[in-house]
Structure formats: structure tokens, C-alpha cells
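Sequence dictates fold. Next comes a concrete instance:
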Amino acid sequence: MGRLYSVLFAAAYLSVVSTTTISDIQGTRFLSPLAGQSVQNVTGVVTAKIYEGSSGFYLLGEKPEDIRVSNGLQVFTTSTSTLGQVTVGDLISLDGRVQEFRSSSSPNNLFATEIASPTNIVVRSSNNTFPIVILGKDRSPPTQELSALDVGPDGFLSNPNNVSRIDTVNDELRPDRYGMDFWESLEGQIVTIPKPIATNFENQFGEFWVYGDWHVTGKNSRGGISITSGPDGIPDANPETVIIGSPLDGTKNPTTAVGVALTDITGPVVYQFGFFYVLPLTAPQVISRPSSNIPPTTISSNGNDPCVVTFGDYNVENMAPTSAHIPTVASHITDLMKTPDLLFLQEIQDNSGETNDGTVGADVTLKTLIDAIESVSGVRYNFTQINPVDGQDGGVPGGNIRTAFLYRPERLQLIPGTPVGGSLDAIEVRKDTKKLALSLNPGRIDPTNPAWASTRKPLVAGWQTRNKKEFYTINVHLSSKGGSSSTQGDARPPVNLPIDARSQQVAIVADFVASVLDRDSKAKLIVAGDFNEYSQTRSVFAPLAKLLTEFDEVVDIPRVERYSYVFDQNSEQLDHAFASPGIEKHKNKAAFEHIHVNSWSPSFDDRISDHDPSVGKFFVCG
């Protein structure tokens, strides 16, 4: 297939520039001041060749005084005869056309500056050496912001997003402050990443994220980089990390995981596929891997104390009756989560799994999981859930995923005397009773509201302990992040879809929470599940944060350890648990822990879910 690209500036006439330097071509902005022009006598040392795919080579010119200006550049060619004319270490001159390349299928990516259609290549000398930028010594990346265009109270997570574009503004680079500017100022240069540490698993192309031996923020105990907030309260975008791409010599990158230490990586800085990369000259080697032992929770159910309730939350990723990972999930619930009194589960499929046959019931799925738990723990759970309308709650076609509760009947029961809600029945707080009571148990929050189109409706349940103390739970699984743009893309702030839907969904949940607390300000209430959003996206969580407090805050978990998911360079928290003031009041008797059984897997294939479970406890008496 031919190489598809769009040229930023179409010109009826191509001006000819004599003796142009690489620094002249790169300039001090994202876009070249010479884009669309023909240039002559561009001189530099060949620093690397792209052997796999044969798409060109890299040149290094004289070092400029201005750190905003790169003196490296890719020369794009698919001509084997042209590639055969040059060798790494050759000092050459050439003519060509300056081009800003971006795939026509990726309009939200940045342009990459390059010389295309090289001609008149002259080798002036060979076996030349060239300087390599040692990151962390010669240059160090900034550690919080990606772009000056990420305006808004939540920085790169602000909403509205996609309000400006880098290629339109094309501002002067500020590599001392903004991460994208920093990597752009090194475009085409050869850099070395000393002592790299992987922050994620490799993707399907063998690419992975790292940071090196330089100052970083958000480093967690595993060696990953967590999304946190900076001293100014703006979310930290972790711009000090970079992707390692396919080695230029055709060797294969190793498998990685969070915290894997590697040998030094040397290669050119490039922009491709929506991110800044370093393409290693040859594949790095693994020096060490973290321990594969996952510590279990220190929180366990105490059958002798009815005033303390333990709970767990787990997105079990498309679980059907025939799912191969059911025994592993059962062992996680038993050995790592210590069979809590109550479990919030997400992504429970119907009894026929992904077969799209109209089935909506999930009793077989849940009983299969319950049987598996009992076989390894001796604990027998009951379940409660509400079937969705076929095909209306999103997820994999035919799966009808939903939220569900498992509970230990010797510890808890649903508050009796209230009917079970149906798929389209809206639960409400009753106004005709002397104390707090629900119209349905369990029930769904406003299930016909358009905000819940093609996504899961929150499941509400009221519970009673052995000593007749009551509490309430809301199990959520909000709309997923499909369709978002790269965090290092052209659109600023980055596109975060569907953030407006998630904002509406949180607001609807918050309205229901408010109705509970208006009826009883001391009510014990937990909202937990997969929110598909970071807590640092404060605009989304604002309505709920006015009413409830995250358990991480209640028990003061270190901010860098608040994560349940790894994606791109980040350890991030998509799964949350919120406590009402009635629970927070007794925070000295509360606990909460994240169990990183999947984020800390030794390899991507060893994970059984893309989410980590969590476990907590709270005091229900008083």
C-alpha cells in the first residue's frame, strides 16, 4: 500500500533555497518555516538508517545555540538505491523537499517534519562520529504539563476539550516547561535513555513506555508512574515518559511489565502514531523484573462483629458461564480479597455470553462464579442483579454486560419487604415512611434517561446486617473511553470521549445520593465500581465529590498508590469507591486497599482482567 500523507501547505510554486541547515528546517515551532519548499545542500551526518520497512535515514547537523531548535531530521525515501548510497557515519549533502507528514487517517495527530524525495546525495566523508544527547544529563524532560494549549482547571483532562489545535496555533516551543515541546525540540536527534524502567506492558507491536535516569513525579512503589496532581492542583500528565518503538535493526523488543529494568536505549526521537517515540538502534535487554508475588489484602471479614462490613470491587472483564478465567477470579476473591462480605462486580455477561440470541438472564454466569468461589474457599455467596433490556447496556455485542452484587448470607441480607425492580423501573427514595426506605430493592437509577444510552445503569441495593443495621450501595459502570484522541495529539486538550455522557451519568448518580442523604444525613452509603474516569478529571466528579469522599482519601492512601489500571505510560485509577459522611465519621474503623494482581502481572498475557480489584471495610453501627 502506498504511503498516505497530507502536506500542510500546498504551494503553487516551490521556492529554491540554497545551503539550508537542518536547524533552519526545524525552526523554533512545531511546524517547519520551510514546509512545502525545496532545499539544497542540506548537510549532516547520517546517524541511523531504518532497515525494517526501508523508509529512510536520519541526519544530524550543527548544534544550534537555541534549545528550541532540533538539529536532527528524518530523510524519507523508499528507494533502495538511495538508501544504498549512505552509511551511518557518512557526512553527506542532499537536496529535497521539506514536508510536514501526517497520515490522512489520523487527523488528530501532529505533523512530523521531514525531507522527502532526496536527490543529489554527495558523500563528503565517512566514519564520522556524532554527539548523542544523554537524557537526564544533557537535557531533561519537564514533569507535569504536556502543552501550553491544555487550558482549563484540569489541565490536559479539562472539559471542554479539543478547543484548539497545535498545528493552527503553531506557537514558539517552550521545552523547559511543556513535555510535547521538549520532545519536539529533539525531533530527529539521537538520544540515550540511561537506566530505563518500563511503565506498562508492551503493546501488540512490541512497543512500551519508559522513563530513564532523570527526575520523575508520580513514581509508585512498583516503579510505574501514577497520574497525580501537581503542586498547583493541575493534573500531572507525566510528560517525562516516552514510547520505545520497533528497533531500527530489525531485532525484537523484550516483553515488559510495570517496573521492568532495561539496558540503556539509544535511538532517534520521532513522532508517529500519535506519540513521541524513541526508536532504538537495537533492542534493549531486560536487567531485572519485579517480584511476581502479589500480597493479599490485610482486610478480612470478622464474623464475630456485625458492626464491621467488608466489601470488594472487581471488574471481572466479560465474564460468561464458559469463561476460562472464572477459576482465577475465584482464587483472587478467596486468596487476595479474603472473601469480603459484599462484592461489587462489573462486566457480568448473560448466560449465553457473546452469542447474540436474545438471552438476558445472568443467573448461570453468577452461579458458576459462586460455585468456583465455594470450591476454593468454602464460602457460599448469594447474588442480586437486574437483567438489562437486550442490547441496550453496551459492551461486547450479545454479552449484555451488567453490574451485580455477591453477598455472604450469614453476614448480610437485602432489606426485606421491598419489591425487586425491573429493567426500566426507576428506583426512588420513599417519602411516605418514617425512616429512609427505597421504592425497589434492588433497583436501577433513572434507567430510561438518555444519558444511559448504550451503557450500564447503576444498581442500587439496601442491606441489613445480623444486628439489623442498614446501609446502601450503588454499583456503577459508566461509559467507556472509546474514541478518545492521543494525549500527545494535535487536539488540545485531548479529546476524551464520551466525557459529556460520563459527566451526566455522575450527576444523575449524585442526584440520587442527595435524595438519600436529604432523607437521612447519617445514612451509610457506598458508591463503587468502574467509573472509566480519573479522579483528577474533577469536572466529571464534582457533583459526587460535594456529597461523598473517596475511600482513598478517607484512609489516606498515598496518592501515587491510588491506581487500578495501567494504560500507555500511566498507572491510573478508573475504579473508585466513595463513602458517605456517615461512614467517613468512623474513618478510624475504615480501611481500603488496592490489590494490584493485574497491574503487577509479569506479562500482559498473565492478566485475567484489565482492572485491579480493591477491598475495604467500614463501620455500620452508630
Remarks:
- The two ends are 70 Å apart (CA to CA).
- The chain has a mean pLDDT of 95.
